[in-house]
Amino acid sequence: MIRQVLLSGVCFLVASVSMAAAAIDAPATRAAAGKILDADYPRLDALYKDIHKNPELGFQEVRTAAKLAAEMKAIGFEVTEKVGKTGIVAIFKNGPGPMVMVRTELDALPMEEKTGLPYASTAKQMWNGKETFVDHSCGHDIHMAAWVGTARALVAMKDKWHGTLMFIGQPAEETTGGAKAMLADKLFERFGKPDIGFALHTGPNPAGQVSYKPGVNSSNSDSLEIKFLGRGAHGSRPSQSIDPIMMASRFVVDVQSVVSREKDAAEFGVVTIGAIEGGSAGNIIPDNVVLRGTIRSYRPDVRETLTGGVRRTANAVAMMAGAPQPQVTITPGGDAVVNDIPIAERTGALFKAAFGDKAIKNDEPGSASEDYSAFIQAGVPSLFFGIGGVDPVKLADAKAKGIAFPGNHSPQFAPLPEPAIRTGVEAMTIAVMSVVGQ
Ligand SMILES: [Zn+2]
Ligand SMILES: [Zn+2]
Fold it and tell me: Cα separation of 299 and 38, whole Å?
């Protein structure tokens, strides 16, 4: 019920958006893009594997940005680099008509890849003052290849449309700072404000699928860091210490009662602690422990309940231990992505016409978060849609055996580039052509 109210509120907000629309033949557009892809695919596959092998962390995507900039220049786009630190903006003007934004992310994650793929990453970069492995385990490399492929398909079809393409490569999506950095660098003031925007994301559903969700599409995300301050001592003399490992352990368990007992059970909300750092040896009680985590929600009141509960639990745990007040930092990240309902319905209908039962309308938003919401809040009505990423045969096999299949952010996440990239190009080409086509 409450979700209904929320969605109708959202509908009210976006109802006044005027949008450009063109009547296109979606199956024919898909076929035309597919024909271009047949010749282009080996290049996209090579680009994908190169980017996958050489992942870079948020705001460090120097090689990645340079690589994409060179690709886009070769296609005929006018490219500006270093927009929002490491972001790129590629513009292609093709007569009068609407301006359409297509966004890809550039960044990877600070983790070790364990897929065993021949093109697996062994790259390392500095992160929070430490060297770490880097892995494209969110599929942003698939998005980049599909982004370049879409640009190439649209330019090859340029006698069939009029308007301006604004293809942006956004840094630092995972830390949710990149979209804001591009906007703060006057993205829309310098290059024009798009009439409409599109982005896609790979997920752990079968490759070849396209999915879309009108209205609320993804969660609010806040990142969390807590430093418990204790007193170090010899491991054999705990009474001399104020043990921050004990505090951290208690917090990790107790904070889940905020989710299970303070939040309305019918509403979505998650608190996850994904990293614990503390101590150096088994016989030393350290003087501090740092926890890092993420808080996810759809509704603003749930967001407040969770962030308030996290702070209160951290303070209570320290008080119980007789420790100083912990340092609690909650950094607001991406807000929920709210897809424009008419654009989502219209584009979704075209996906269904072109992809048949492989185009799926989702009833519920996803739990992931995205800073693409910053572009929507800056006034670009958009559709952020999904493409399937994983091997349908392996996925069905895992389901039959009742085994969890590795999704995004897993060290085993291994998207199937073909047909994921192909599907991304075909769907994105349809989306853009539905605005600029004639
Ligand atoms: Zn991610
Ligand atoms: Zn992602």
Answer: 44
Query: Does domain 2-218+336-436 sit in CATH 3.40.630.10?
Result: yes
Is the pLDDT assigned to residue 351 strictly greater than 60? yes
- Report pLDDT digits (tens) over 371-384: 999 999 999 999 99
Neighbours of ion ligand 1 (CB under 5 A): 138
Say how far apart CA 373 and CA 402 lie, in whole Å: 35
Cα–Cα distance measured from residue 37 to residue 45, given in angstroms and rounded to the nearest whole number: 11
- Cβ-in-10-Å burial (0-12, 13-18, 19+) of 215 comes to buried
Ligand 2 centroid distance, CA of 58 (Å)? 12
- For residue 202, the tally of other CB atoms under 10 A from its CB is 27
What residue spans define the domains of the chain?
2-218+336-436, 220-332
CA distance 145 to 43: 9
Q: How many residues does the chain have?
A: 438
Residue 419: asked if its preceding bond is cis (omega within 30°), the reply is yes
